[in-house]
Queue: 4 jobs
Job 1
Amino acid sequence: MSTAQEPAIGIDLGTTYSVVSRLDDNGQPITMVNAEGDRVTPSVVLFDGQDVVVGKEALKAMATEADSVAECSKRDMGHRVFHKVFGGKQYPPEVIEAWILNKLRADTAQQIGPFTKVVITVPAYFDEVRRKATQDAGYMAGFEVLDIINEPTAAAVAFGFQQGYLNAEGSSDEPKRILVYDLGGGTFDVTVMEIRGSEFVALATDGDVRLGGYDFDQRLVDLVAESFIREHYVDPREDPSAAGKLWRECEDVKRTLSARNKASAACDYRGFASRVEITKKQFEEATQDLLDRTRFTTSQTLKAAGLDWADLDRVLLVGGSTRMPMVHAMLRELSGKDPDASVAADEAVAHGAALHAGLQLAKQQGLKGTFAIKNVNSHSLGVVGTDPQTKRRRNGILIPRNTSLPVTGKRVFKTSKANQKSILVQIVEGESPSADDCTQIGKCTVRDMPPNLAAQSPVAVLFHYEPNGRLKVRVTVPGTDRQVDSEIVRENSLSKEHLDGWRRYVCQAEPTDYR
Ligand code: ADP
Ligand code: MG
C-alpha cells in the first residue's frame, strides 16, 4: 500500500474515555465507532483469567469484580507498575494502555482494514517520561506512532479547522489568542495558544495529572457513603466491588446534576439499601476546592503567557467535565467572557490528532502541510548537581518551562582525570530546587569519549527537546569533531526486549504471558 492510501488516524487515549478519529476522503475528521457501536470507549481493562476485556464490559465489571479491573491507568504512567495487582501480577501502566489501544486498533481495522500509523494524544502537562511511556504503549499495541500531540493543541487544531483557519481563504492574518481549558476524567490541562494564520503556537501551559472528573465522582461517593453509614453503620467503600458499583452510580448522578438540580443515588451493601438524594448545590459545595484548583492554575497560566483576560479572543472548553455548569460559571466570572463550547467536548482532541496524522503522512510523502504547530515544554529540564555545602542533590535548571520547542540546552562539564572514558549525567524534570522532588528521567552515561583527553578537558552535553517534548542527549567535545548521541538509561522504562515481548503478547501473536 502506498502512503497515499494510508488512513490518517488520531487516537485520544483518555484517562477515562478514548476516542478514535480518521480523516475522510475530503480530509474532514470523523469519529469512528467501536465494536459496541459507541463513539467513545471506556479506558478500562478487565483481567478475566486468561482473557483481557477492554471497554464497556470492563467498566460494568467494576460493580462485581472490581479487584480484576484496571481503571485510570493513564494516571499511573511514568510509574514502574500499575498500583493494583491482578492474579498475582503487576503490569506496567503502559502495558495496560497498550491493551486499550489494541482494542481501538482492532475495532477500527474491522471497518477500514489493517493500518499501523497513528498519532496519539498526551496531556500538555505530561512530562518526558510519561510521553515516552505513551509512545511505548502505542508500539506494544502494534502501532507505528507517527507522533504524539498535546491534547489542548489538538483541540485548538480541531477548532481552527472548524473555523476554516486551515485553508488559505480562512486563515486570518490577525492572530487569535485562545485559552484551552481541558477538564477530562483524570487530568486537567490548560494552555494558552496563539493562532497565527495556520500556525498554532502554544504560549504557556500548566495542569495537573491527578485532577479530573474522577475526583468529582469520589466526592459524591463520599457524600453517599457517609449518609449510608449514618443510616446503617456500615461503609460500602470498604468492599472494592460495592465501592465500584457506587462509583458508577455516582458518575451517573454527576451527569444528571449537569442538567438538573437534584438527583438520587442508590446504594446497597450487606443487605442494607438506601437512596440518597443529592442537590446540585451540595455537589458544588463538596467539590469547590477542586474547581478552585483549576481556577488558580488557569490564572497562573495566563500570567505565564504574559497576557490578561482582555487579550484573549476565546476560552475554549474541552473534556467531558466541562459540561458541569459550575465550570462555565467559574470561567465566565474569571474571564468576563462566555466560554466557547463549540467544539465537541469528547471528540475535538481525537479530531485534532487525526488532522495532525494527516499532516505527518503528507510530510512523509514530501508534501507541504496545511498547518504548523509550535509547542512549549511543560516542565523545566535540569541536571543534577551536588550542593557543596549541604551535600544535597540539587536541580540545576537548564531549560526553564514554557520555553518554545524545539530547543537545545548546553552544559559544559570538565573531565576530572586524564584519558577519562565516560561521564555520568543525571537528568530531571521539575521546578523544585531539590532534585529528589523532581521527576527522574534517568542517567545518561556518555561513553565513546575521544581517547587521550587531558584532565579538565571541556565536554559539552546538549539536551535537545524535540517539538513533541521528547528529549535527546548529544555530546560534543569542543575542539574535536566528536559528536556522540547518548542513550538515556531510564528509571522506570521498559527495555526494547520487553517492549517486543509485550507487543507480541498484547497483539496476541504469542499466547503465553510475557514478563
Ligand atoms: P478523559 O479524556 O480524561 O478520559 P473526557 O474528556 O472523556 O476525559 O471526559 C470524561 C469525564 O467527563 C468523566 O469524568 C465523565 O464523568 C465526565 N462527564 C461526561 N459527561 C458529563 C456531564 N454531562 N456532566 C459532568 N461530567 C461529565
Ligand atoms: Mg481527554
Note: The chain has a mean pLDDT of 92.
Job 2
Amino acid sequence: MTRQSPQAGEKSPGKPAAQRCIAPGCGASFGLGERIYVCSRCGGPLEIDCRLENIPAAKSLPEVWRDRGASPHPRDRSGVWRYRELLPFDDSAPIVTLFEGNTPVYDAPRCAAYCALAELRLKHLGMNPTASFKDTGMTVAVTQAVRVGAQTAMCASTGNTAASLAAYSARANLQCAILLPRGQISSAKLAQSLDYGAIVLELEGNFDDCMRLIRELGDDPSIYVANSINPYRIEGQKTVAFELMEQCGWQVPDHVVVPGGNMGNSSALGKGFSELLRLGLIERQPQISVIQAEGAAPLAHLFAKLDPAQIAEGKELPETLEPVAAPQTLATAIKIGSPVSWKKALRAVLESRGQIISVSEQQIADAKAMVGRDGVGCEPASATTIAGIRKLAATGHIRRTDSVVAFLTGHLLKDADYVSHYHRGTLSLAAETESEPAQELTGAFRNASERVAATKVAILDALQRRK
Ligand code: F0G
C-alpha cells in the first residue's frame, strides 16, 4: 500500500530527504510521500533521513532559531516548526499547528533533594496545547496526513496520543478515529478526544491489542496511522532536543531521563541529539535513560539481560523482545507490554550510554507527589522519571553533581482521580486475578483535605495544627 504525494521535501540541491529502513543489512529508501509505516521490503522500522549534509551553514542555525522566537508568524511561533531546517518539508508546505512546543524548564529543588542530587531540572512537555508531549509529533504527522491526502487519521492510544490526534485533526478538518482499551484510560483524556470531535472506539482488550489492529488497518488506503511507528511523528518529537539545548544555553546536560511506553519519545530524543551532534552543534550527547513501570517493563527486562561487553561494542543486538502479556500499572499512559519502537529506543540508549530500568508503583506515586511539591505537577507516567533518577542516583549511575533533566510528559490534570486517591489514601492496583489481593499504596506525602467548622476560630486552629 503506497501512494505518492504531490510534493517532495527538498531543502536545497543534493539528494532529497527520504524515508529509510534502519534494519541492519536492509537500508531500503522510500520517497517522502510514500504512505508506509514499516519498510515494505523487510518490515523493519523506518526513519526519515533529512540529508543533514544538504543543510547550508548549519553552525548559524541556533541564531536563526533564536531570532524566530520574536516573530509573530505561525511557522516561527510553533516550537516545532521553528526548527524547520531539520524537518522533511519545504517551507511553503501548509502546516497544521496549535503553537505546540515552547514548553518550560523548571528548577526542582525538592525533587533534587528527594533524589539526593545537587540540582535537577524538569522539562514540562505537559504544557503543550493538549497537555502532553504528543503535540510536538502530531503537528508534523497531521501536516503529512494532509499532504498525502488522507481521509481518516487513526491511532491506538492509552489516551494522550488520542487527545492530541483528535485536536490536530479537528484543526485540519480531517476525520479522526481512535482505538482505546475500554476502561483503561483516564476520564480526562477520554473527555478531550470527545470534545475535539473524534470517533472514539472503545475496545475490549489492552493497548497492545489496539495497536495490533491499527497496524492491520494501516493497510487500508483510506486510513492514515498517526502512532509513533509513523516516522513523521518522530520528526516532530525530536525537536524537543533542539528546544532543550537552546534552553540550556547549548550546554549539554549529563543525563536526560524519559518515561518509556511505546518507546517513540526516547527514539525521537535519540534522533534529535544525534542530528545535533552530526551537525556539530553539540560536542557530545547526554545519556538518555528510559524508565518503565515495573508491571509493564519489557525493555527494562531485556536491558538487564544484555551483556555489557556486547553493549560496549554496540553490535549483535537482540532481534526480538519478549512482550509482557498482561501489563499492569496505575500509570495507564505507559501500560504497554509490546512497545513498537523498542529497537530505535534501545539504539538511542546504547549510543548515549544510558540505562533502561523499572520502578515500582509506590515509587511512582511518591515521586509524583514530590513533583507536585515543587509546584510543577505531572501525570503518573511522567513521575517514573523522578523515581528512576532517584534509583539511578542511589546506584551511582548518576552522580550527585551531574546535570540532570527529567522529562515530564503529561499534565497533572490528565489523571486527577489518581491524585485524589493518593492523597485520600485510597490508591490501589487491582491484582491480575480476583483471588489475589489488590496492591494498596500508601501516600508517603499524603495531603488529605480536612473538614472544619465554618468559623474563624476553627480555621485558624486548623492552620496552627499544620505549622
Ligand atoms: N508519558 C505519557 C504521559 C504518555 O502518554 C506516554 C505514551 C508515555 C509517557 C510514553 O511515551 O510511548 O513514546 O514511550 N502514551 C501513548 C498514548 C502510548 O497512546 O498516549 P512513549
Note: The chain has 16 helices and 15 strands.
Job 3
Amino acid sequence: MSQYSTFKVGGPAEAIISVTNSEDLARLIHWLKKNDVNWWIVGRGSNILVPDQGLAGVTIVLEGEFSSIEKLESEGSQKENSTLIRAGAGCLLSKVIHYCTKNCLSGFEFAFGIPGSVGGAVIMNAGAWGHEIENLLDSATLMDNNGEVSTEQGRNLGFTYRGWGMKPNTVLLYATFTLTTSSREEIKAACRKYQELRKKNQPLIKPSAGSFFKNPPGLSAGRLIDEAGLKGHSIGGAKISEKHANFIVNTGSASATDILNLMRLVQNTVYKQFDIKLEPEVHILGDVG
Ligand code: EPU
C-alpha cells in the first residue's frame, strides 16, 4: 500500500478494487457484506497509515465517474452570486481547485496544497487557515452498507473538527459545494498566499500525512510536542519534523512500525509532561495491536 499513502509506507493490501460507477459499487458492497469481508475506501492516501503487515480485506479505490466535476444548473433556491458544483469522491482536491480557478469560483482557496481527494477531505472535514470544508458543502450523495443511495444536506452530516458523524462504512459518492463568483486573479492570489504560509510553516518535501495529531481543544499539538523537546527526535526512518513538531516525516527508510512507535512516544511524553492525551488525526488502518 506504500504507493497509495503519502507517508510512502505500508504492507500489501489483500485486494485492491478500483470501482468506476455507483451500480458496481452497490453490487460489490452487497457481495462483501454477504461474504463477511472487511472493506474500506481509500482516497489519495494523504491521511492514512497502513501497517507493515498490510491490510486484510478489500481496499476500494473510487475512479471513473467518481473523478468527475460539473457545474449544476441553478435551481432558484441558491443564494445570490453562488454557484453549485458537484465533484466525485475520487476527484483530487487540486483538480477541484484548478476547475474553480478556471471558472472564477471562490471558496476552495484555503485547501490549495492539501494533497487529498474530495471524499477524504469531506469525511475528515479538512480545514486550514480558519476554514473547514463543511462550510462549502451544500449536500452529499451517500451509499450505505446495503448499497442504498441517498442525498443528505451538508448540515445533517454531523461534522466535527476533523470528522463527520455518519455511520462507519457510509460511502461518500459525490459532494455538492456552494461557491461564489470572484475574479480569477483574486482566487490565484489567495491560493498563492496560502501556499506561501504552508511552505513557511510546514515540511512539504519529505513524505508525511500532514498534521499527525488533532489539536486538543484550545491548544496546539505542534506547540505541545515542541515544548516537550521532541523536535528532531527519530525512531528508525520516522522523525518529528524540525520545522513543525506536529508533522512526522518519513526520512526515506521509515516503516509503519517506526511511525507508530514514534506516535506512541510522543503521546506518552506529552501525557507525562502536560497530562494531555494527543489523538491521531491520521487514520490508522488495519490491526496494529
Ligand atoms: N507551533 C510551535 N511549534 C511547532 C509548530 C507549531 O510552537 O513546531 C505553534 C505555532 O507557532 C502556532 C501554533 O503552534 O502558534 C499552531 O501552529 P500552526 O499555526 O502551524 O497550526 P496547527 O494548529 O499546527 C493547523 C492544522 C493544519 C493547518 C494549519 C493552518 C490541525 C491538527 N492542523 O495546524 O492542518 O494547515 O492549522 O491553518 O488542525 C492537517 O490537518 O493535516 C493540517 C496540515
Note: Residues 128-129, 201, 210-211, 214-215, 220-223, 226, 244-246, 281 surround EPU (CB under 6 Å).
Job 4
Amino acid sequence: MMAEKKQGKSLGCLGFSGAFEGGQYQLPVLPYGFDALAPLYEERTLRIHHDKHHAAYVNGINATLAKLAAARSAGDFDAVTALSRNLAFHGSGHVMHCLFWNSMTPGGAEVPEPLAAAMKDSFGSPEACKKHFAAATKAVEGGGWGVLAYEPIGGKVVILQSEKHQDLTIWGAVPLLVCDVWEHAYYLQYANDRASWVDNFLKLANWGFAAKRLEAATAS
Ligand code: MN
C-alpha cells in the first residue's frame, strides 16, 4: 500500500511508471512504439522480449509473493530458499527490463549534463565511459547485463557486470536491516549453530534504524 502511495515521488521510481498498480506488479507499456527502434532493434525481437519475456518476470514475482504469503499463513517455510531465489530472479528481471526499455530511445541521444561531468570525473570522458561500458558488457560471462550505476557512498559513477541478474537480490532494493551469516560473524561463539545466532540477532535488532532507513528510502 505504501509503495502505491509513494509511487513516482522518489528517485527510485524513475523509469517504473506502470510497473506496479492495484497491489500487483504490472507489465508497463513501452515508452515508444514497437517499431520505433528499428532497424537497430527490430519490432519482432522487441515485441517478444517485452510481451513474453518481461511479462514472465512480472507474473513470476506476483506468483512468488503469493506463495510466500501462503507459506507465512501456514507457518511452513520448507520452500523459503527456493521462493527467495524466485523472488530475486523475477523481481530483478522486472526491475532490469523496466530500466532497459527506458535505456533506449529512438535515434539515440547525446550525453547531457550533469551526467557528462560525472562521467568525466569517474572515467576521464564520456567516450572513455562508453568504451569501458561496451567492453564490460561484451565480456559478461553467460547471460547478464552491463550496468552503469551510481555508487552513493563514494558519489561515483561505476560500471558493473551482472551475471544473470539476481544473485539473490533485487536491483534497486534498499537494505533496511541486515544480519551477517558469514561464518566469521558467529562461529567463534555459536560454532555451527547459525539458527541460534539468527534468533539472538533478532532479539538485538534495531528496528528504529530500519524505520529511519525506510523513511529515507520513501522520501522524495
Ligand atoms: Mn531480457
Note: The chain has a mean pLDDT of 90.
